[in-house]
């Protein structure tokens, strides 16, 4: 079961990287990322899988997260030199 979760998370990581390459200024909440960024993939992606994928991208230095004044958390691409 852990292998299936890992594979699902890696699929979402790849999807997020593809989305961010096409939309480098994108920034959104976990809920909106799960609901809107993956609409083409269908509704089979649960928020826990998306959250794990976002954490992997944060650990890799590809995303940052910011807590807004209203308590929501915003995820955005980390700008790279020359990008």
Question: How would you characterize this protein structure?
Answer:
This protein has 83 residues and is of the alpha+beta class. It has helices spanning 2-22, 30-37, 47-59, and strands spanning 27-28, 63-67, 73-77. The chain has a single domain, classed as Arc Repressor Mutant, subunit A, CATH 1.10.10.10. Strands 1-3-2 form a three-stranded antiparallel β-sheet. Helix 1 crosses helix 3 (47-59) and helix 2 packs across helix 3 (47-59).
Mean pLDDT, to the nearest integer, reads 87
Secondary-structure-based class equals alpha+beta
CATH superfamily: Winged helix-like DNA-binding domain superfamily/Winged helix DNA-binding domain
**What is the CATH architecture assignment?**
Orthogonal Bundle
Total of DSSP H or I helical runs spanning 4+ residues: 3
Biggest sheet features: 3 strands, antiparallel
CATH names the topology as Arc Repressor Mutant, subunit A
Strand order of the largest sheet: 1-3-2
Rg (CA only): 13 Å
Poorly predicted residue ranges: none
**Oligomerization:** single chain
- What is the CATH first-level class name? Mainly Alpha
User: Beta-strand level of the residues, as a percent range?
Assistant: 5-15%
Q: Compute the number of strand runs.
A: 3
From the spread of the alpha carbons, the general shape counts as: globular
Task: Kindly state the percentage of residues in helix.
Answer: 40-55%
Can you write the helix and strand succession as a string?
HEHHEE
The N- and C-terminal alpha carbons lie at a distance of 38 Å
The tally of structural domains comes to: 1
